[in-house]
């Protein structure tokens, strides 16, 4: 089974629309949560200093086939190549 680490700098509540779109995209790609993919969700609750520890914990390091996804948090993009829709150039 594949495993995906999903990390957001925002709260769970503020990320609901992103998570819904993410799950829909997985479904369209043929992935069904708990059937052929497991998603490990982590949220920093708008506390950027929490991001490094959340990444370091890495519960997916159990030998699973890991995939990491970056999702944008700013509507108009940022200085890291994010176009504001979670896509990076």
Structural summary, described in words:
The chain is of the alpha/beta class and 89 residues long. It has one domain (2-69). It is built from two helices and three strands, in the order E-H-E-H-E. A three-stranded parallel β-sheet has the order 2-1-3, with helices on one face. Strand 1, helix 1 (16-28) and strand 2 (37-43) form a beta-alpha-beta unit. The radius of gyration is 13 Å and the shape is flat. Mean pLDDT is 75; it is low at 73-89.
Topology readout:
Elements: E1 2-8, H1 16-28, E2 37-43, H2 51-57, E3 65-69
Parallel strand pairs: 1-2, 1-3
Q: Name the average pLDDT.
A: 75
Q: Compute the gyration radius: what is it?
A: 13 Å
Q: Order of helices and strands, N to C?
A: EHEHE
> How many β-strand stretches?
3
Distance between the termini: 29 Å
List keywords for this structure.
3 strands, alpha/beta, 2 helices, three-stranded parallel beta sheet, 89 residues
How would you summarize this macromolecular structure in one to three sentences?
The protein has two helices and three strands.
């Amino acid at each position: 089974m594949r495993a995906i680490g999903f990390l957001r700098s925002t709260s769970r509540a503020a990320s609901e629309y992103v998570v819904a779109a993410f799950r829909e995209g997985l479904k369209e790609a043929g992935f069904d949560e708990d059937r052929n993919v497991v998603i490990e969700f982590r949220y920093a609750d708008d506390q950027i200093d929490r991001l490094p520890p959340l990444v370091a914990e890495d519960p997916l390091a159990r030998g699973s086939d890991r995939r990491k996804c970056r999702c944008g948090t700013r509507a108009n993009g940022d200085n890291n190549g994010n176009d504001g829709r979670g896509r990076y150039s």
